[in-house]
Amino acid sequence: MKRRSSVAKLTKLKMREANDAEYVGLESGVSPRLENLNKVSIIPLVFLIFYEVSGGPFGVEDSVQAAGPLLALLGFVLFPFIWSIPEALITAELGTMFPENGGYVVWVSAALGPYWGFQQGWMKWLSGVIDNALYPVLFLDYLKSAVPVLADGFPRITALLFLTFALTYLNYRGLTIVGWVATLLGVFSLLPFLFMGVVAVPELEPSRWFVVDFNNINWALYLNTLFWNLNYWDSISTLAGEVGDPGRTLPKALLYALILVFLAYFFPLLIGTGAVPLDRDEWSDGYFSDIGKILGGVWLRSWIQVASAVSNMGMFVAEMSSDSFQLLGMAERGMLPECFAKRSRYGTPLIGIIFSASGVILLSWLSFQEIVAAENYLYCFGMIMEFIAFVKLRFDHPTASRSYKVPLGTAGIILMCIPPTILILVVLALASFKVMAISLVAIFVGLVLEPCLKYSEEKRWFRFSRVLDYDPTE
What is d(CA 438, CA 312) in angstroms, rounded to the nearest whole number? Predict the structure, then answer.
């Protein structure tokens, strides 16, 4: 067991090149190095972030249905300043302060203690697994028009399980492979919208962009759509230990991904609302493929449908990587049994991948709207703790080593956190009673689960070991 508890040791560890993939061989208790493990470079990292946050414009259609073109466009311009940019800045600072697997779990543990660090990990992991349950379902939904047998019944269940297992195996084979696959899928998914923009130019009518009806706005759907499509910037922090030179690479990748996500949302919305007569009822999941048919013909619709399906594969593998490495990071700090820290021969967290895949399969029966609302609710609670940890670490350790630091003083970072906190409270208030009840039960399970795990450690029912345990407060 190796312990690092002082600020000096924490800083020293962060300054070494490192994150050179040390791990404990759990069978022998030895700590060999994974010297041949390839680190993730900046281009795959950008697309991993892109897929953890976005994956393309698929799913933004509901914003037009909920509020009309003007508010939909303004939402994707203004919302990043309220939410995405602050979350990305916090991730860049704390991710370079703690360039290790576990990410936000480590941040909250350092600021508020291991109990609340565990609660952060539980809520964020569960939120991520709920989110990931969407993607195999959406993939089949895009294909069922071409293959009707996938609409329901045994063929759909079989296809769902096969797809989940195939993408899970891809995660098992290594994060570097996942990163480059995400890059290829991302380029392929965005290309049809570039072409759609070219063919739409003669049809554009700018007056359509300014249509708004304040008497007919579904605020809950509007805010949930914006929130779901523009959050999860902090997910990349859970695998920061697998990034080459994270102190420089992570902030740059977050900046490039932020630009890419904005363009991937705003440009298709601008084209779709400006080139096609408005029918708000038609603006739901998959409507971009219909716009493609109107503007470019059947072949463009088919291209967008395939790109939509492929995008869901990219989001699945990126999200599972984040979730599984989070569990690995928690195990390295003694929050979970040490089996979760065990790596495969490809350097991937074997048990974490299995648990994350199992959660996806168990939750895949939920509806799209229920999944989005439930994950948003849990995610909001986790983000509140993240904001508190960010401010507290600035107060308690203003001179601690940070390769990147948000260029604001203490008062500035507090002000930066106020708008997203208000947004969180609004999203929580708009949740349905069913979503609220399910989410609160899930939170209660986490509150009870942590002491149960501690008790099992005392009774030696499970083996726990701290490979890394940083506490900058000591």
Answer: 25
- Are 321 and 239 in contact, with CB atoms under 8 Å apart? yes
Instruction: Give the CA dihedral 135, 261, 93, 317, nearest 10 degrees.
Output: 20
Give the list of residues 6+ apart from residue 370 with CB closer than 8 angstroms, or none: 434, 435
3-state DSSP call for residue 466?
strand
- Rounded to whole angstroms, how far apart are CA atoms 299 and 471? 57
C-alpha to C-alpha distance for 226 and 216, rounded to whole angstroms: 18
- Encode pLDDT of 129-159 as tens digits: 887 777 777 777 666 666 777 777 778 778 8
Lowest mean pLDDT among 33-42, 153-162, 249-258, 329-338: 33-42
Buried b / exposed e along 45-73 (16+ C-beta atoms within 10 A): bbbbbbbbbbbbbbbbbbbbbbbbbbbbb
Three-state secondary-structure class, residue 462: coil
Angle, alpha carbons 122-185-21 (nearest 5°) = 50
d(CA 287, CA 259): 24
Whether the CB-CB separation of 76 and 269 falls below 8 Å is answered with yes
- Token pair 């716009």: residue: 291
Sign, CA dihedral 195-197-198-203, equals positive
- C-beta neighbour count of 166 within 10 angstroms: 12
Instruction: Judge contact between 132 and 313, C-beta under 8 A.
Output: no
Spell out the SS3 assignment of 424-442. HHHHHHCCCHHHHHHHHHH
Closest CA to 100 of 388, 369, 333, 256: 333
Tokens of 242: 């697998």
Distance CA 43, CA 32 (A): 29
- Please give the helix or strand (H or E) that residue 471 lies within, else none: none
User: Given the structure tokens 């601008």, which residue do they identify?
Assistant: 270
What CA–CA distance (Å, rounded) separates 45 from 439? Answer: 31
CB atoms closer than 10 angstroms to residue 285: 17
33 DSSP β-pair partners: 22
Tokens of 395: 């107060």
The CA-CA-CA angle for residues 398, 328, 46, to 5°, reads 70
Give 319's strand partners. none
Handedness of CA 230, 231, 233, 235 (dihedral sign): negative
Q: How many CB atoms lie within 10 A of CB 375?
A: 28
Q: Which two tokens stand for residue 461?
A: 């029912």
Phi first, then psi, for residue 408 (nearest 5°) are -140, 150
- State pLDDT tens for residues 32-67: 344 446 788 899 999 999 998 988 898 889 999 999
| 333 strand-pairing partners | 466
Name the pTM for this structure: 0.82
